[in-house]
Amino acid sequence: MTITTAPAATAQDVAERDTLTDARSADAATGLIAALTAMPADHPGRPALRDRAIEAWLPLARHLAKRYSGRGELTDDLVQTATVGLIKAVDRFDASRGVDFAGYAIPTIVGEVKRHFRDRTWSIRVPRRLQEMRLAISEANNTLTHKLGRSPLVADIAAYLGVTEEEVLEGLEGARAYSATSLSTPIGPDGGTELGDTISDENNDYDEVDLRASIGPALAMLDAREQRIISLRFYGNLTQSQIADQLGISQMHVSRLLTKALTKLRGHMDVAAFS
């Protein structure tokens, strides 16, 4: 008895079979949309047909969602968002406008995914204008990198988008709010220190702010030589001897002038504190 086996399918056979299957699936999906569009809104069979049409076009939604994977969002979340866009496209499609369903559904689904990134994924809320600019800059960067064969400059992106370089820089600055870093993030060569460990938990910051805010007006109340001595001593970190050499006076004289200036400075700051 001779047993004859069928020859193994080649890669070309598999590709042709998949292409035929995809074509049949696309035809079936298109037919479901056509049938749904022609069916009266109050027809009892419409809900079931609508569900079948949505299921038939789900591969398109998944394909478009995966374009945006790797940008900090889970692929499952993107697929869900794209599916919402698909449902909107099915419900709003109007065949009388002369546009095929795919031509209408693709921008609807992509728009839904982009809104997801714009409205749901920012760590800090920024104006919508900056959110949209960030997306535009990202798309322009990808396009120009491929077109120019190098990373585009700010001027290149501005020219491509038809905006000013200042607007591009503003969009890039706003993009920093897109994601936040956890205070538990390990830092340092051994990873033994967390980012939160570098932030002071003392409550004297407000006192320092008040001091810095009041010292400027108080310094303005001193005469020019007193201001210079204070500046050289505490901002220039010069010794009294070095200050004396610069002013052409004795170190003892500098010491007396510095003491007098500090006394006046404290008096002005005390008055400001209680006024």
Automatic annotation (TrEMBL):
Heme as UniProt keyword: no
Region (Disordered): 183-203
A UniProt-annotated Pfam family: Sigma70_r2
GO biological process: DNA-templated transcription initiation
Swiss-Prot/TrEMBL keywords: DNA-binding, Sigma factor, Transcription, Transcription regulation
Domain RNA polymerase sigma-70 region residues, every copy: 54-122, 136-204, 218-266
Molecular function in Gene Ontology: DNA binding; sigma factor activity
Domain of life: Bacteria
Cited NCBIfam families: SigBFG (TIGR02980), sigma70-ECF (TIGR02937)
Protein name: RNA polymerase sigma-B factor
Organism in which the protein naturally occurs: Catenuloplanes niger
